[in-house]
């Protein structure tokens, strides 16, 4: 017979005694909650102990550019001699939408001596598989880009595409980026004409792009 006031239960020597199930209840009554070990972070622990040392301010910035303002800015680029600024802007857009492996050209306005404003460079297939933006075909193909802010875009594209084809570098695709508006019919006719003439794929990207 047990002489103590505890229940008659055998306790193995060296075993850890079990806490009563009332511990969480007592903790809730005290207004505390047991932390979750899996979701516990030291920063959250310090924030709970010293909330006055942590800022709860959230910095939220929104950049709003009205379409009419951007349209006017693109229309008047040449008046402010910002052709090179537009070239960098168009290249950055192409890196996001088309292919990230673009190398900028240095030299005089109009592409320098390489006959293109920018072009792709070879990238290993293992790296191209990890691209989150653009087309993986550009990793192994040579694409040429011509960027222009001239109002008369038709003579300009004919001249630029003739220069690209004349390099004999094996371009399989050429893009012409312009700040002008291009009608759908004019775009389709020009792309078909230049594609048949030079033997590689041609795409025209205007201000609507």
Summary?
The chain is an alpha/beta fold and 209 residues long. It has helices spanning 22-29, 42-49, 67-75, 83-97, 125-128, 153-166, 184-198; strands at 102-104, 118-120, 143-148, 173-178, 201-205.
Q: What would you call the quaternary organization?
A: single chain
In N-to-C order, the SSE pattern is: HHHHEEHEHEHE
- The secondary-structure class comes to alpha/beta
The portion of residues assigned to helices is 25-40%
Q: Output the number of helix runs.
A: 7
Q: Mind telling me the C-alpha Rg? A: 33 Å
Overall pLDDT metric: 82
| Beta-strand percent range | 5-15%
- C-alpha end-to-end distance: 91 Å
Written description of the protein model:
The protein is an alpha/beta fold. It is built from seven helices and five strands. It has helices at 22-29, 42-49, 67-75, 83-97, 125-128, 153-166, 184-198, and strands at residues 102-104, 118-120, 143-148, 173-178, 201-205. Strands 1-2-3-4-5 form a five-stranded mixed beta sheet. The longest helix has 15 residues, at 83-97. It is elongated.
Break the fold down into its secondary structure elements and pairings.
Elements: H1 22-29, H2 42-49, H3 67-75, H4 83-97, E1 102-104, E2 118-120, H5 125-128, E3 143-148, H6 153-166, E4 173-178, H7 184-198, E5 201-205
Parallel strand pairs: 3-4, 4-5
Antiparallel strand pairs: 1-2, 2-3
């Amino acid at each position: 017979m047990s002489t103590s006031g505890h229940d008659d239960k055998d306790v193995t020597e060296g075993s850890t005694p079990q806490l009563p199930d009332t511990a969480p209840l007592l903790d809730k009554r005290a207004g505390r909650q047991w932390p979750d070990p899996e979701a516990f972070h030291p920063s959250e622990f310090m924030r709970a102990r010293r909330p006055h040392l942590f800022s709860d301010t959230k910095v939220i910035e929104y950049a709003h550019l009205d379409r009419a303002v951007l349209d006017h800015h693109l229309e008047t680029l040449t008046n402010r001699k910002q052709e090179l600024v537009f070239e960098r802007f168009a290249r950055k857009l192409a890196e996001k939408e088309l292919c990230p492996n673009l190398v900028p050209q240095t030299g005089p306005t109009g592409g320098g001596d390489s006959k293109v404003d920018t072009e792709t460079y070879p990238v290993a297939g293992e790296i191209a598989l990890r691209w989150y933006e653009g087309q993986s075909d550009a990793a192994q193909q040579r694409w040429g880009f011509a960027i222009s802010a001239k109002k008369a875009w038709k003579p300009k594209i004919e001249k630029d595409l003739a220069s690209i084809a004349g390099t004999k570098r094996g371009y399989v695709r050429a893009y012409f980026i312009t700040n002008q508006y291009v009608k759908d019919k004019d775009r389709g006719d020009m792309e078909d004409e230049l594609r048949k003439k030079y033997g590689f794929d041609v795409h025209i990207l205007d201000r609507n792009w």
